[in-house]
Amino acid sequence: MSQARRSVSLLGATGNIGVQTLDVLRVERERFELVSVAGGDQLSELAAIVREFDVKNVAVKSERHRDELVDLLDGGVEVLVGDEGLTELSSSADVVVNAVLGFAGLPVTLAALAAGKRLALANKESLIAAAPLVARVRDAKGAELLPIDSEHCAIHQCLASAPAHPGYPDVKRLLLTASGGPFRGWNDEQLKGASKEDALRHPTWSMGQKITVDSSTLMNKGLEVLEASALFGIEVDRVDVVVHPQSIVHSMVEYVDGSVLAQLSRPDMRLPIAYCLGLPERLAHHFGELDFTRALELTFEPADLVAFPAVPLAYEAARRGGAAPAWLSAANEVAVEAFLADRINWFDVIPVVASAMDHYVADPLDSLSALYENDALARQWAHDSLAR
Ligand code: NDP
Ligand code: MG
After folding, report:
1. Most informative mutation of 10, 17, 221 for ligand 1 (most atoms within 8 A of CB)
2. pLDDT in tens, 344-369
3. Which of 34, 170, 303, 324 is an S-S bond match for 317, by CB 3.0 to 4.6 Å?
């Protein structure tokens, strides 16, 4: 191929989505050049990526991480630190993949859009928390926001036939599919005894620990309702959740004439990653390819919103608006961390979030400093609730 390669910045390169993005880049070396990466604590893995792809710019969390990484590498690489590092690397590539975990990914989302880049977004937490602020920077010249999250990537594809009027008047509703997680069909008694091993055993996807726990509580689906609304500018009352245990139909769009469009594939995140990197081109590969020569069963059922109150909690956060989604996501991060550190039971994760949400005082979220204040307050209330 003679045309210039697209430069890619991959932030969160050492994580689950990061590693799968590298897989795509490995088979698409003629199209893409990995120019910068960032990671957290897995420094030898980060150093290995830098060597393999001959990356020139790296960002890490702290000075200590920088010193360790510099020791691991033999120079020739610029190592930046903290939010400023993430911001700089998010402003200087054609495509920015935000695969950082949690609220820490916020600088990437804001900087990539403000700089007019294509943002391939896995990090849903930043969009959910900062939706009103993201809406403002999204209009920057050249900026493009493409979802890696499989459900939203499916919807992006199913919306291709909709006239791009604001709010999509031809669309009746978005149908987000959910596998139902490892606890689908469990009763309260069983859920009270759910262990960490149970929660981390996702039936259809292999993902990072935080999102795997979020899938077990269905908070992931709640967050995805907020994510869909922020991405497509469709109010949450037109976003529904439907359980589809096979994770083959990644989501659907129902139009006002009753037509339902769906996107199907085997569950493989490399497909949405490749979609976001390649658009408008479809990259030819076998990730996610379905075998229709074998029997394929697709079933759908309603979500159990009594056993899994995280979903109604997310709708309520959406209706309250302003900083309420930021509170939901921040309190959830605290509760999931506590669960993963064996400090609380699975059954207590969502009550911690609900308890923090009880302290939310309406805030329109009109500045970045207001967002950081709200994030800190929500975390504080969640920590207080853990201590009780
Ligand atoms: P992982 O925990 O596997 O990876 C998180 C990545 O973020 C790691 O590379 C980690 O570094 C890095 N990181 C953490 N903190 C920082 C920081 N301060 N600065 C730079 N890098 C940092 O998570 P996943 O890959 O599963 O998920 C990433 C995001 O994608 C999440 O927002 C998740 O919701 C979303 N997502 C994931 C899906 C999946 O299939 N995994 C599907 C849809 C969305 P290190 O490991 O070195 O500490
Ligand atoms: Mg998803």
Report:
1. 17
2. 999 999 999 999 999 999 999 999 99
3. 324
